[in-house]
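Fill-in record for Fucosyltransferase.
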Amino acid sequence: METQNSSRFFIAVAVITVCSIMFYMYFEPSLNWLNYPAVPKPNVCGNICSNALKRPNQIQIVNNNNCMVTQKETASSQGVDLDTILLIWTWPFGQQFDLGLCSSMYDIHGCHLTDDRSQFNRAHGILIHHGDINGDLSNMPKLPRPPFQKWVWMNMESPSNSGQRSNLNNLFNLTATYRQDSDIMVPYGRISVESGGKKHDEIPHKNKLVCWIVSNWNSFHERSKYYAELTEHISIETYGHHFNRRISDQHYSDVVSSCKFYLSFENSIHKDYITEKLYNPLSLGTVPVVLGPPRKNYEEFIPGSAFIHVHDFTSPKELAEHLKLLDQNDDLYRQYFTWREHLVANEFCFGLEHACRACDHIRRNKNYRVVNDLNSWYWG
């Protein structure tokens, strides 16, 4: 009897010992019950990403799948929502927008937008608008960046209209601009196939020949010089602050749609810098006359038959003669609207689209990307 009891005792001790060893091998203590923040699991990718930031004058891509998996595992164990979180650090130009429209407007799901800076340590991405960055970076995030987190540089102004900051290098992981070579490319508008077979080839009634709305006037701009010569050969209805003829947002559509031609002249000329000055007239049934990058660049975004480029003519006088010809020949004029039979022009939603598409990009792409020389890329 004593022998049996001894055997049972030693077996029990052995079982307890094995369980204890397994417990200390696999148990990870949590301080959540004390309301302390969870301690992230250590991983080697954090050092890899940090080292990539220190490498000058290049863009580094480092596989960072382990970082994202580790973070998701931690979040799952704590019952945290697995949506990708994008923190809007500052509202672009102070313009706020609805944070819950990614799914309904862009069919983007699994993204959570927030402007709550207390979510910094949980956010997968931080959207930072260039126009709101102080010159000394004093309003940039000060907390250490989690290794899985990506900072997105957003800018829709051209290099000519963007104040360059020499200390922006080695800060950002992704770019969100109008340029085609951005990580997240957000143009000022889009031409898309109209669903449901609905045609948009109706042309609004016209009672004006050529129109132009401008407030930002600079006599040294190329568009100002071209306008000065063009107006000598054709009548142009002008509006805006510069011409002491302001129009309200409510009357803007009525004015533009009533013009046969609209001067879609950009304030600076850069590749891909094609703004709402083009897409607004297209959507309102007016033929845009463009001054900006070469025609070939425009045709990467819209049909070549939808617009008139100033470079198609040897002089402003020749352009004026062509516009007068179209005014007298309705069949020729209507050829600029054939694209509307199957396509539609869509304007973009400033800020919201950048946030939604940046969040979706981060959700879909797990590689770690570092933009070491932002200044050379954008202003070079």
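KEY FINDING: The chain has a mean pLDDT of 83.
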